## 1
Amino acid sequence: RVKVIAGVTQTGTRGPVVQPLTEPLYLDVELPPGQVFSERLPSAHNGFCYVIEGQVEAEDADGGVVMMQRDDLAVLSHGNSVELRSGDLGARCLLIAGRPLNEPVARGGPFVMNTKAEIRQAYDDYAAGLF
């Protein structure tokens, strides 16, 4: 079972969120034991796989196999596709990819913005009840 949250899959299934600037792909993938899931990704996209339940095998950049377990996150290397294989008990994971923004990133607590000034403004707005 694959739930498309954002983007368009290689088979043309569209999620409710389609954003042309970053071309996001956000998939919630549930695999029975020993099943393989593959998806083509644009070579310029950054991506990652986060395991929610079970175990997932994936190929690393050197052609070796990496076993990921619950709460593991693997950053995907640039390539044309990703192939995931579930372990003996099945698996559920998030596969997320998108075009890089190439913008500065500032982090502070729960906020992620472009500058420290924007982080301070977000804290002020939060304290004022604006969101």
## 2
Amino acid sequence: HVNFKIDPKGRDLIRASITRSYRAPDLSRLMARPSISTAYPIDKPNPEISPDRVGNPALQPELSLGMDLAFEKYFTPGGVFSVGVFRRDIKGLVRNALSFGPVPWASAPRWVSRPVNLDHATSSGLEMEVKGRLTELWPQLQAPVGLSLRSALSFYRSKVDGIPGPDNRLESQQPWSWTAGFDHQWAGSPLGFGGNLAFTPQYGVQQTVEQHFEQMRTRNVDVYMTWAFSREAILRASVNNLWPSDTVNRTTLTDVSGLLQGSFNRSTVHPNFNVNLTLKF
């Protein structure tokens, strides 16, 4: 890890690092005890879209070599802008694979999903963030002194070898994401308030040669308000998921006969209200 100051008297700097990481499999992925698809009795075959699941005691850890480069620009007296790029080379990426055949827990052949190590994958990204008081970020603007802003925008790309494109990316890695928020402390008043917004787009992941997963876009909005009775007593009221969007995803699979199978999942998200009183002694 190396930090380089552009001006020895200033705070702006460049960060560079090379890392090598070791990621052991979760214990559940190593256990050979099966989780049976209860929708289909064990005396009959199950479809590919609804396999039994079992661990793999021979699973190996993922090994990753990473390179990071970032630039940080500091404003007077406290705002900061940062931009960074990274790349990861992953060996032994863990991904679930389907197989069909006789199994010891059923009297009929079954489709089974078990984790395996793939050969190689790469991941890269660009991450940008800016945060600080508005008067620090934009001195020419006659803005309230107590208003702070923050925003982050990231772009990600990945490729898993042996899986057909164009969606042969890492699982749970969206192509981009955006977050923004603000905090404001009213001058001369015990009132403070703020909020956060997070958004990720719809994207797909080619999990195997036959199976494709699609995650719909997500949106999360949180707001809060505080009232300071004193330095020792602060009341905070917040609403999470103020503008909720359901979590929706679907999986499609082309079976060995060429037929298309699919599943659809929707999780309803509701606003969550919280009121807390903090007392310091």
